[in-house]
Structure formats: C-alpha cells, structure tokens
C-alpha cells in the first residue's frame, strides 16, 4: 500500500539551470513574453527622463538662480534646506540635541529588535533612553529650554512613532488581557474602547485632541499641543496593538495556562512569567508591521499644524528665495521614509525566518 | 488665504463617510463649544504677559509667511507679528508663530491656541458677530481672481459656462465662486482641494479649467506654472477680501494694541519715516512727529505702552511700504503691485487715525 502511494507521486523533474528558469518565466508563453516586453517598454519610456532629471541635468550646488535655468532636479535646494528639513524651527546652534535624541530613539528601536535584548533589563534601557531623549529635546540639564512649539522635523516624526508604540504597549497588554478576562464589566469596557478607537480614523482622533480637548478643559489648564497629539497617537495605537497581543495570547495552548496554574502561580504571575513572554514573542512580526504603518501615519500631524519631517520638507519649498522645489523636497522626504521602512521590513523578514527555526 | 466661517459640510461628490465629513463634524462641534466657552477665558493680554510671548497663528504662503533656511519665520504678516511683539515687550522676538491650516485656524483661535490670528483672514460679518472675533485694521486688501489658460480663449468670467474650477476648501473663495456662478446663471463643476500646492498641481496638469484664489496668490501661482505665459489672470475680482488680524472677544486692551501697532506702520509711511531715516526725525519740532515717535512721551504713558513703541517698530521692521516691498513687492518673486494697498493720499485705502 505505502509503496503504491509513494510511486503515484509525480517524479521530480531534474533541476533546471537558473537562466533557463528565468527565460521560461519571462518568455515561456506568449502571455509572459507580452508582459515582459510591455514592462521593458514602460521602463524604457520612464527611466531615461527620470535619470536625466535626477542625475544628468540636476544642479548639485549653487544659488537658486542656477536651478531656475536647469532642466533637472535642484539638489542644491536640499543642501541649502537640509538643516531646516531635518530639524525645522529648533534653535540652530543647539541642533545637536535633537540629532542626539533622534539617534537614541533609533538605537533603542534597533537594539530592541535583537533577540539578545529581549529581556527585562531592556525595559530599564528604554526608560533611561526615552528620558535622555526627552531631556535632550526639552533642555534642562542639557542647556537652555526649547519649547515644544519649536520641535520639528525628523526627531518629531521619530518621537511620535517610537513613543507612540512604546507608550501604547503597556496599555495594549492590559486591554488584551481585559478583553479575555472573565470579569464582564472589564471585558465590556475593553471591547468598547478597542472597537470605538479602531472605528475612527487617526485624523479624527488628532482633531479631537487638538481642537475639542482644549475647549473641554477648564480655563487656564492647557496641555501642550505636541503632548496632546502624542497621547492621541498612543491611545489610537493601543487599540490596534491590543488586538495583536490578543492574537498572541490566543495562540498559546491551553496546556500552558493549566501548567502555570498547577505550579501554583496566581493570575498575574502566570501571565508575567509564562504566558506573555511566549505570546509577545510570536507577534513581533505583526508589531513591526504596525510600527512601519505608524511611522508613516505620523505624517498626519500635518493637519494639526505640527511640523514633522514631511511638513518641514513641504514648507521648505515655500521660502520665496527657493520657491517651488516641491518635487525635490518630497523626493528627499520619501527617501528618508523609504530607508527607514525598508530596513524595518527586511528586519521583519529576517526575524520571521529566525523565529520559525 | 481666507478661512470659511462654516465647516465644509456641503455635499461631497464622493460617497460614504469620508474623513472630511468627520472633520467637518468635529469642527462644527468645536465652534459650537467655543461659543459657550470663550467668555470664560481670561483676558488675552494677561496671558501673553504671564507667558512672556505672543502666540500668533499663521499660514504658509510664500511672501506672506514661510520659514527661511534657518527655520525663522519670514513674511508680510510675520513682520506685523514682530511689530506686535515690540508693542507689548519692546522686543521683536517674543513671539511664537504657530502654523495652522485654513480649516482649523478659526476653531484654534476660539480654543485659545493663539492670541491672534495673522493668517490673512477675511473680515466678514459672520465672523465678527456669530463667531465672536474682533478684527484689527485691514493690513492687506485683496480680491478673488480667476486664472485661466489662454487657449480657452476666455476674456471674462461670464464666458466660463460649464467650466471645472479648482478651489481651496475652507476658504471664503469656495463660497464666492459658488455665488459668482449662481449670479451669472452659468454652470460650473468645483474641484475642491485643501492644499495650495496640490491645487496648483491640479490646475497645471489640466484637471480644471480655472484656478480661483485671492489674486495675490494667483500672481505667485502663475509664476510657478511650467509656462506662465500660457495663462492669463481675468480682469474681474469676484470678491472683496480685506485681510485683517483676528482676535477673540473679551480683551479690548489687546485689540487696541493690535490696532495701533498696525496703524504705526501706516502712519510712519504717511509721515515719510523709514527704517533708514527715522533717527533724523527724532530732532523734529513737528508735534505730530514728536508724539508719534515718543519724543513727547504723553501718548505711550496714557496707553501704558513704551512711549517709543512706534519708533522701535519702524526702526526694526520698517513702515508699511517697506514691509510690503521687502516681502511681496515688485522686487520679490511674489511681485505684487501695491494696488489698493497704497496710502489714501496716493489713491489707495490705507488710512491711519491720528496719533494724538
């Protein structure tokens, strides 16, 4: 019997050389050939003008007048505006501070990606790192205070995304646990919060935080605008993160829960020591996906008048001295977003492979 | 440039509950709440002095307000913000400029996000009465224009039957263009876009036949189009757009400071006083000039202001004409003529009440 089944399997064809597989993929059938030729034609049509614009006819250095005469991109504009695009209105002679803060945030995110750092001590690293970044941006021991109205550019984008995710994390874990709790009231509240928040677009949450919240507060009690946006982002992200964490909790076999109970662990102990470490590990790839989305979503703060990287890039082209170089500004911003997101998604793939092992 | 008093709640061509509809709802609610809450807020001037700086709401429009390469705000309205800072603190830099989009700036002013809105708001009846804003003196007289490609062969607005019109959301421009086509009993199709730059792109790519904005904006838009000579600004001005500083009800003293800081720049031009020659006027025997510059300190003392506030304003940012020419005048990329914004003595509308 078993022999029969084995024999009925189709014999494996001998492995073809790589170029041959490629040839069949590209030109194997008339349809494939047509698609390939179509794509080549499209590339031939699009690439040469693009190359001419970005490289050959581009102006790399010089004043704005030189750019006006050129047919290509004006990268001199990026050179002139680089500091403004990256750091916006932050005091020029203190821009090392937001630069250092941004570097700390990136380093924290990078380190936490390494399995070596998936341990409790990393929590302290985060607390310390975040505090250092905030002190650097605000001033205090690092020098004269800079009000949040002047925080802008890339550090703000990073701050909103990183703090948004990290701040949402404890809340999301609690929400996920509450949603699976047997206490009816707690569960209903969690379900209500998660579903309402996920049913509202981020832009509406931001509008509520910037426009409605100050009107509801008693006179004189003002909360900083950036802080309001940050809190709105934290609350918004926590709902999505809670669902991811809940998926992780559900993936843990019931035997683990029972084993923890059998060891005499209480609810919180079993969650902390047995369930969550396993559950969170399985959902890291989903969290990375959420983080990439969040980093891009922070550009929405443009609508409430905060200056993230995209907004500083956009307004750089409104300076009458360098008027209208929107294409260059957006290309530059896109390049930065692309770099960060490609690194993050490559990391996610690497991690998935590693976790599967 | 101008913010509509209403949230943009007119029927959208798109179906479903779009973010715009949600935002419109939030804004209406915000304005409603603001009307009940505004009276409770303390006087603006006290808040400014306690904070040590003035919060000024601005937009982003080349020549009027834009950050330079050093991250410092520059522009026509920005200079008036600096003038206010001088009037209150005797220092041009005790002012924070907060950028705001057309849709959110009025609710933000209501909620106390800024002490004054210098973002080119059109002074209207509704805004002054229903929304509860006081307006300072008009600093820029503008009017809405129509920019069309020459190849349409159109010479006046009435020829535009059935045209597709690109217009910015949340501005009086949206209401004006609707009124204009209704009055002339001709049809049009609006293409409504929030962002100025997007609007220009849509027009340049031929998505619409007409671009309508304040004529000051259109002048600069035209220079930014791939072939400026292919486009023409139609002669009509379909609206009056007096752009003035706006503040909340409830602080008369603050309003007067705004008024007289602006008037000081106009008065200086009228007296022929400029940034360069102002010191030579300090020895003048003319009582008008002596009062104006604070050589005779009686005016400032009565107003509890630094008697030399007008002197410092003109010395630091210049008179009205200098502010205009430096930021948006014929020598700049914006390249605007003074037009209505000339002194009354030269056929314009600018007129400062006497400093006495």
TrEMBL record, chain A:
It holds the Pfam family BPD_transp_1. It is found in: Cell inner membrane; Cell membrane. Keywords: Cell membrane, Membrane, Transmembrane, Transmembrane helix, Transport. The keyword ATP-binding does not apply. Residues 154-348 form the ABC transmembrane type-1 domain. Its main location: membrane. Coiled coil: none annotated. It is a multi-pass membrane protein. It comes from the Bacteria. The chain crosses the membrane at residues 22-47, 99-118, 123-142, 154-177, 189-217, 229-249, 287-309, 329-349. SUPFAM superfamilies: MetI-like. NCBIfam families: HEQRo_perm_3TM. Belongs to the binding-protein-dependent transport system permease family. HisMQ subfamily. This is Amino acid ABC transporter permease. It comes from Azospirillum endophyticum.
UniProtKB/TrEMBL annotation, chain B:
The keyword Signal applies. Gene3D superfamilies: Periplasmic binding protein-like II. SUPFAM superfamilies: Periplasmic binding protein-like II. Pfam families: SBP_bac_3. The keyword Transport applies. It comes from the Bacteria. Residues 53-279 form the Solute-binding protein family 3/N-terminal domain. Keywords: Signal, Transport. Belongs to the bacterial solute-binding protein 3 family. This is Amino acid ABC transporter substrate-binding protein.
């Amino acid at each position: 019997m078993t022999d029969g089944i084995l024999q009925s399997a189709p014999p494996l064809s001998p492995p073809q050389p790589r170029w041959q597989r490629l040839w069949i993929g590209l030109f194997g059938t008339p349809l494939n050939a047509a698609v390939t030729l179509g794509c080549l034609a499209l590339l031939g049509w699009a690439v040469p003008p693009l190359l001419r614009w970005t490289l050959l006819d581009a102006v790399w250095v010089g004043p704005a007048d030189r750019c006006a005469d050129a047919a290509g991109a004006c990268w001199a504009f990026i050179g002139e505006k680089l500091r403004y695009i990256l750091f916006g209105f932050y005091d020029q002679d203190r821009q090392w501070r937001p630069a250092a803060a941004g570097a700390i945030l990136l380093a924290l995110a990078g380190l936490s990606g390494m399995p070596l750092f998936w341990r409790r001590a990393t929590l302290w690293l985060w607390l310390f790192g975040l505090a250092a970044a905030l002190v650097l941006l605000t001033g205090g021991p690092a020098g004269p205070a800079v009000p949040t109205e002047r925080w802008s550019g890339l550090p703000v984008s990073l701050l909103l995304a990183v703090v948004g995710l990290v701040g949402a994390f404890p809340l999301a874990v609690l929400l996920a646990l509450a949603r699976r709790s047997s206490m009816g009231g707690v569960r209903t509240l969690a379900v209500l919060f998660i579903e309402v928040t996920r049913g509202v677009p981020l832009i509406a949450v931001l509008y509520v935080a910037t426009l409605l919240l100050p009107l509801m507060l008693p006179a004189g009690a003002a909360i900083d605008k950036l802080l309001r946006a940050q809190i709105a982002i934290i609350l918004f992200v926590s709902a999505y993160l809670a669902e991811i964490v809940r998926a992780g909790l559900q993936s843990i076999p019931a035997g683990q829960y029972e084993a923890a109970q059998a060891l005499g662990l209480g609810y919180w102990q079993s969650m902390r020591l047995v369930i969550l470490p396993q559950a969170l590990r399985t959902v890291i790839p989903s969290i990375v996906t959420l983080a990439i989305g969040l980093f891009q979503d922070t550009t929405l703060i443009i609508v409430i008048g905060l200056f993230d990287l995209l907004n500083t890039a956009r307004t750089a082209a409104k300076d009458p001295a360098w008027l209208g170089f929107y294409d260059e500004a957006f290309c530059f911003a896109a390049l930065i977003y692309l770099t960060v997101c490609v690194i993050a998604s490559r990391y996610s793939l690497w991690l998935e492979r590693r976790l599967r092992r | 440039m101008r913010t509509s008093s209403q949230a943009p709640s007119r029927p959208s061509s798109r179906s479903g509950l779009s973010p715009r509809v949600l935002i419109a709802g939030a804004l209406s609610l915000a304005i409603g709440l603001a009307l009940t809450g505004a009276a409770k807020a303390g006087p603006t001037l006290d808040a400014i002095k306690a904070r040590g700086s003035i919060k000024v709401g601005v937009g982003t429009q080349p020549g009027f307000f834009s950050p330079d390469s050093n991250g410092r705000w520059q522009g026509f309205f920005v200079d008036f913000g600096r003038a206010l800072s001088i009037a209150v603190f005797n220092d041009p830099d005790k002012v924070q400029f907060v950028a705001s989009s057309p849709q959110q700036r009025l609710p933000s002013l209501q909620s106390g996000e800024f002490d004054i809105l210098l973002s080119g708001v059109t002074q209207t009846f509704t805004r002054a009465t229903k929304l509860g804003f006081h307006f300072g003196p008009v600093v820029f007289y503008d009017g809405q224009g129509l920019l069309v490609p020459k190849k349409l062969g159109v010479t006046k607005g009435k020829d535009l039957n059935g045209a597709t019109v690109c217009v910015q959301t949340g501005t009086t421009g949206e209401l004006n263009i609707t009124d204009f086509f209704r009055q002339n009993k001709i049809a049009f199709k609006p293409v409504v876009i929030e962002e100025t730059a997007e609007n220009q792109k849509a027009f340049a790519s031929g998505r619409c036949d007409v671009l309508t904005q304040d004529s000051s904006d259109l002048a600069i838009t035209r220079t930014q189009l791939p072939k400026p000579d292919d486009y023409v600004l139609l002669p009509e001005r379909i609206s009056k757009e007096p752009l003035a500083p706006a503040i909340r009800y409830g602080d008369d003293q603050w309003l007067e400071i705004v008024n007289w800081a602006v008037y000081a720049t106009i008065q200086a031009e009228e007296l022929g006083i400029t940034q360069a020659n102002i010191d030579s006027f300090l020895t003048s025997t003319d009582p008008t000039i002596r009062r104006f510059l604070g050589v005779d300190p009686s005016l400032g003392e009565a107003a509890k202001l630094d008697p030399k506030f007008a002197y410092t304003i003109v010395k630091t940012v210049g008179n009205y004409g200098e502010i205009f020419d430096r930021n948006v005048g014929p020598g700049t990329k914006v390249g605007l003529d003074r037009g209505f914004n000339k002194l009354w003595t030269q056929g314009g509308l600018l007129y400062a009440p006497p400093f006495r």
